[in-house]
Write a structure and sequence with these properties.
The complex is a heterodimer. Chain A folds into two domains: 65 residues, no CATH class; 231 residues, MetI-like fold. Chain A is 74% helix and 1% strand. Chain A has 15 helices and two strands. Chain A has a two-stranded antiparallel sheet with strand order 1-2. In chain A, strand 1 and strand 2 form a beta hairpin. Helices cover 49% and strands 15% of the residues of chain B. Chain B contains 19 helices and twelve strands. In chain B, the strands form three sheets. In chain B, strands 1, 2, 3, 6, 11 and 12 form a six-stranded mixed beta sheet that branches. Classes of the chains: A mainly alpha, B alpha/beta. Chains A and B meet through helix 2, helix 13 and helix 14 of A and helix 1, helix 3, helix 4 and helix 18 of B.
Chain lengths: 332, 434
């Protein structure tokens, strides 16, 4: 056997082997692969799609449908009124109060919680004795159930409750207020409670973000003679940007939909006076308690649209870099 | 396009799942025809005595006793908290194909709506004897002369007061007129106690003042017409608001009353009376039990001091012997079996009512059942209820939730100083069209 023949023979054998390894038929096999891929996609997503459809998409559709009817929840809706419920909502000064209160909570939460959380996170990011304990402590209010927090603060802030008693004991009796009964004050009391409740979440998020800031950068800056403050200002905080933006997004959506703490802390009277209502409490007060089911659905749709548009705008302008490719595909 | 095909596929999927869901819920149960107690039936019963206690235990016993009398009937009870039951569970269940057979019914505007939607079983013929025994109160569960439910509890409201505080402040007898009430408020203020506590935080306790003023300012006919037509053109409704405004002007209530709740905790309006911090509270017959719970161990010492007097008289076209009140009842849903009506009658029978009265959670409605009431204070309410020439159902219940809520919201605004008597009426009219 010549060397040439030998090498041919080797090539043949190699071909034969690879042919054995390759599934039969080139184009056919690609189709099979694609088909299997689709089975996997369908198999894995179907349960989620069904659950999402039945519990999210379909109810949204129903809400829009019902919102076009004058319907008290007795019998099927028959009296079609078009956009009248939406018009009535925006004409109601109490609903406008609710919108305004939501805005106060959105902006107030960002402006108050943000700086506090950032400061505390930067502090807790330093090494000191008892750090784990303090980290746990700031997170406790967030873990407590909303209703528990609501009842607790209602008891603390009620007339002659612990806050009033404490102020009097300190000789500051003149500072005693109708925390939950002085109409212009209530929304600020609620903002305080919401801050207390949710600032821990921001802190934990920021701490997680801080742990991703590479130590080499801060170390290098320190070697270059940067002070602690300069390091935070020019290295840590800019690198924390994505975390802060995600927190802003979550805080904003949460503030627009806030319900439980308000519902528990604020008495029904001050809610219906517009002093301490939000779109969500307004929806329940009118939908269920005043039994205006069609109208309540219209309010629900308004709340949904406002949250949805706010979310889209925020994603478009603030989160663009952070979620590039993850949610939106390529962003030009 | 690939995109739209997926969307279509998803929609098809959705449609299929909805179909599956609806068909699964779609087994109609035909009302069992034939003779009573022949076939075994199960009655589902929804009531609002959800807290563990004598009320809940009593209904359980009623169900067991009925089953022992008629072994073919088993009763499945679901006890649900009032707000949830009234605002969401019952309306939703009545829209479905599987409503409870017998359930709590508050009468008034709500039952009118339910009858209009053909959701209730008419019981006029079968309950003639019971209605006769109950008297005029049964009309609250009737629409256009046809009976759709029966009450088991009924009472009128008045002022609960502390006799000792009254005596210490130099008030010798419970006020009989509005002027006497105002004089009493002045004396109580001088004695440094809260004259009247009001649970304005819950809205309705404050609104009840307006109702009482309306009861005096409006003739009985004007009230009856308003309930039917939901038009509030009679000037007496504005007058009620002005009278209320004038009364709030003498500042008879506790500080921060706008956010004070009615029944929860020692700081609630009932709690203030139960702990001797306030002298009076305008409230229904149930307040006795509420105060007992709130006072806890100190109730034994407080109980002898607690008295009751009806809302003071005001000169006006209103019937001075008319009173404001309300009650609780049950109704059978449209498709409920005939046994449901029998059970409804059993609940309203004098024997069951007497036993109910003895439990002490409310005043009975059937004739003769009052013998079961032992508390002197409750006895005085019972006799006042029986003496009333006309019992006007709580206006928010009578007018239905929609007008009722608008009315209460408007009244609360008067209490807060932001509303006007005219606006209450305007809002009620607007709500009727909402």
């Amino acid at each position: 056997m010549s060397t040439a023949e030998q090498s041919l023979d080797l090539a043949d054998r190699a071909n034969a082997r690879s042919a054995r390894l390759r599934p039969a038929g080139g184009p056919f096999s690609r189709a099979a692969r694609t088909r299997r891929k689709w089975y996997e996609i369908i198999g894995l997503t179907t349960p989620a799609v069904i659950v999402y459809s039945v519990f999210v998409l379909v109810p949204i559709g129903f809400a829009v449908y019902y919102s076009l009817y004058r319907w008290r929840g007795v019998g099927s809706p028959t009296e079609f009124v078009g956009w009248r419920n939406y018009q009535l909502a925006f004409e109601d000064p109490i609903f406008r109060d609710a919108l305004w209160n939501n805005l106060i909570i959105v902006v107030g939460s960002l402006l108050v919680q943000g700086p506090i959380a950032l400061g505390v996170a930067l502090l807790l990011n330093r090494r000191f004795r008892g750090r784990a304990f303090f980290r746990l402590l700031v997170f406790v209010p967030y873990v407590l159930a909303e209703v528990t927090v609501g009842i607790m603060w209602r008891l603390i802030l009620m007339r002659d409750g612990s806050v009033d008693t404490l102020l009097q004991a300190l000789g500051l009796g003149s500072l005693v207020q109708g925390w939950l009964s002085d109409l212009p004050l209530i929304i600020w009391t609620l903002l305080f409670i919401l801050t207390w409740k949710y600032v821990g979440f921001a802190i934990i998020l920021f701490l997680a973000g801080l742990s991703n800031v590479p130590g080499e950068l801060t170390e290098a800056a320190a070697i270059d003679g940067a002070s602690w403050w300069q390091i935070q200002r020019h290295i840590t905080i800019p690198l924390l940007g994505p975390t802060i933006r995600i927190w802003m997004f979550l805080s904003m959506i949460g503030s627009l939909q806030v319900f439980d703490v308000i519902w528990v802390v604020a008495a029904p009277s001050v809610r219906s006076l517009g002093a301490a209502n939000t779109m969500a409490t307004y929806m329940v007060d009118n939908g269920f308690f005043a039994r205006l089911w069609g109208y309540g659905n219209a309010v629900a749709v308004i709340l949904f649209l406002i949250s949805f548009v706010a979310a889209l705008l925020f994603q478009r302008f603030f989160l663009r870099r952070d979620i590039q490719g993850a949610l939106t595909g390529r962003v030009s | 396009m690939a995109r739209s095909r997926h969307v279509r596929a998803a929609m098809a999927l959705m449609a299929t799942s909805i179909l599956l869901l609806t068909s699964a819920c779609n087994k109609d149960e035909a009302p069992s025809a034939g003779e009573l107690y022949k076939n075994p039936v199960e009655l589902t019963w929804w009531h609002n005595a959800s807290d563990e206690g004598p009320g809940k235990a009593f209904w359980q016993k009623v169900a067991t006793d009925f089953h022992n009398l008629h072994p073919t009937v088993t009763i499945k009870i679901e006890a649900i908290e009032t707000n949830q039951l009234q605002r969401t569970r019952i309306p939703a269940a009545l829209l479905s194909n599987d409503p409870p057979d017998i359930f709590q019914a508050w009468g008034g505007g709500e039952i009118v709506d339910q009858v209009k939607a053909d959701q209730l079983r008419e019981v006029t013929e079968q309950t003639k004897a019971e209605v006769a025994s109950i008297g005029s109160a049964a009309a609250i569960w009737a629409v256009d002369g046809k009976q759709y439910g029966l009450p088991f509890r009924m009472g009128i409201e008045g002022f609960w007061y502390n006799k000792k505080i009254f005596a210490d402040a130099g008030i010798t007898a419970p006020p009989k007129t509005m002027d006497e009430l105002k004089a009493a408020v002045t004396k109580l203020k001088a004695a440094n106690v809260i004259p009247i506590s009001v649970g304005a935080g819950d809205k309705w306790p404050a609104a009840h003042y307006w109702y009482n003023f309306a009861l005096r300012a409006c003739s009985v006919n004007a009230l009856k017409d308003a309930t039917k037509s939901l038009k509030f053109d009679d000037p007496c409704f504005v007058k009620a608001g002005s009278d209320l405004k004038e009364f709030i002007g003498i500042q008879p209530f506790q500080p921060n009353f706008i956010a004070t709740v009615a029944q929860q905790g020692a700081g609630s309006s009932a709690g203030l009376v139960a702990t001797g911090k306030a002298a009076m509270e305008l409230m229904g017959d149930w307040n006795f039990g509420v105060m007992q719970n709130l006072a806890g161990d100190s109730w034994a010492a407080m109980k002898p001091n607690i008295g009751w007097f009806p809302f003071p008289a005001i000169t006006g076209p209103g019937d001075p012997k008319a009173a404001l009140g309300g009650g609780d009842g049950f109704a059978c849903s449209k498709k409920a079996p005939a046994e449901c009506v029998e059970f409804l009658k059993y609940i309203a029978s004098p024997e069951t009512q007497k036993a109910y009265a003895a439990v002490g959670v409310g005043l009975p409605v059937a004739k003769g059942a009052g013998d079961g009431v032992s508390e002197p204070v409750l006895k005085s309410i019972l006799s006042a209820t029986n003496d009333a020439s006309y019992v006007q159902l709580w206006l928010d219940t009578a007018y239905g939730s929609t007008v009722g809520t608008a009315m209460n919201d408007g009244i609360i605004a008067i209490f807060a100083g932001t509303g006007t008597p005219q606006k209450v009426v305007d809002d009620m009219k607007a709500a009727a069209k909402k």
